[in-house]
């Protein structure tokens, strides 16, 4: 076994942050309203000409749709600065098997991304079955997906979230439906979205950034912070979303910084050279 020729670089000795990735819900917006400091944080990034992406595991909406929804919340975020689990899944499929075929269960965000990646969507003998979030699950479509997987199709899913919020209460999400398919087929999916660092690394590639000089902001320890840690980024947890301060010690990893909200990070952006 070859010995290491150098010690890993401590986080405190890393170069200045020159790119930022930020989760969307609970960090920049909450209940369709911009959170305090979100606009100022984005303005600071633009003022310093720092590349950034807004990340979400939501695969329902296209980037254009999300940009419009964010605008309605009071945030100006162009579609090119948005990176969804659908985008990451399409990029992953293109990398794995360019120009191949997939049977897709998902909304416009996923189907648009996969089509843009050069894939043919088909119900007949696809290489992949791809599962994303949908507003209503069709029993026939799920049954067909199960039979395709039993026939040898590879099982991919956009994100492992098992539930999501709605005005009426909890909704089953992609991870819950994937579990049902797994129970029927015995095949577990490969989840591309957070906390898989594949989504983070693909996002960094999109903006030409490197992990050692990038930071990730999120409101969840189990997805945002974990993904950032595993991708080698400096991670910042904000307490404006899903995680309370007392929850942090329940995890075997810690964020680089803990903040009340996104506004607390503005001075870090403005300190960049």
From TrEMBL:
GO terms for cellular component: cytoplasm. It holds the Pfam family Hydrolase_6. GO terms for molecular function: phosphatase activity. It comes from the Bacteria. Keywords: Hydrolase. NCBIfam families: HAD-SF-IIA. This is TIGR01457 family HAD-type hydrolase. It comes from Schaalia odontolytica. The lineage of its organism: Bacteria, Bacillati, Actinomycetota, Actinomycetes, Actinomycetales.
């Amino acid at each position: 076994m070859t010995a290491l020729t150098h010690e890993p670089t401590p986080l405190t000795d890393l170069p200045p942050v020159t790119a930022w990735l930020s989760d969307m819900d609970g960090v920049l917006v909450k209940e369709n309203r911009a959170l305090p400091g979100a606009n100022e944080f984005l303005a600071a990034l633009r003022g310093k000409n720092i590349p950034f992406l807004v990340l979400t595991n939501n695969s329902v909406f296209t980037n254009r749709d999300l940009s419009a929804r964010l605008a309605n919340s009071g945030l100006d975020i162009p579609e090119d600065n948005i990176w969804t689990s659908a985008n990451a899944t399409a990029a992953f499929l293109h990398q794995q098997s360019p120009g191949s075929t997939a049977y897709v269960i998902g909304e416009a965000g996923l189907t648009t991304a996969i089509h843009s990646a050069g894939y043919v969507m088909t119900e007949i003998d696809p290489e992949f079955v791809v599962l994303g979030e949908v507003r209503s699950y069709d029993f026939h479509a799920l049954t067909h997906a199960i039979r395709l997987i039993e026939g040898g199709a590879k099982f991919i899913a956009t994100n492992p979230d098992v539930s999501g919020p709605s005005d009426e209460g909890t909704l089953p999400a992609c991870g819950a439906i994937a579990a049902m398919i797994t129970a029927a087929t015995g095949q577990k999916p490969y989840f591309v979205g957070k906390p898989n660092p594949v989504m983070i690394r693909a996002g960094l590639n999109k903006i030409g950034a490197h992990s050692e000089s990038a930071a990730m902001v999120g409101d969840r320890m189990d997805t945002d912070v974990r993904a950032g840690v595993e991708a080698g980024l400096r991670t910042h947890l904000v307490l404006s979303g899903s995680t309370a301060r007392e929850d942090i010690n329940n995890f075997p990893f810690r964020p680089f910084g803990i903040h009340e909200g996104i506004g607390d990070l503005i001075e870090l952006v403005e300190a960049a050279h």
